[in-house]
Model the fold of this input.
Amino acid sequence: MKSLCNREDTEEVLRRLRSLKEDSARRWGRMTAHQAVCHLSDSFKAVTGGKEVEFAGSFATRTFVKWFALRVPLRWPKGVPTRPEVDQEKGGTRPSEFARDVAELASLVEEFASEGREFRGSLHPVFGEMGAGDWLRWGYLHMDHHLRQFGV
Done:
């Protein structure tokens, strides 16, 4: 399974990120490519303590849905609503300058995937508590989902 714990997988998503263009056409959803970059940055910041996101999970999402989303080799579904704190049309970070926002996201991915990274106290807004392996798998899958949204 691909994960940000594997350097090759991290390099893959970073390469794909750098091929994303501000005017890349979306294949689904309503966010623009630039909004997706900011959404991904906000999501990584929520894990590393740079952004607060309210927990909205349930027993089912903390157990069955989390296991399915992180372990079953199927692509994540399209159109799943996002938390307002990481929604760029609501409480998320507004896009600024595309190249700068992409560079910030790349830096966040590198930091997130760094060896020895601690995830203690990090709480996913839907999946709840996760170990380092789950966080790194989630990071890859979330990046992959939104990069595929724009054909990269």
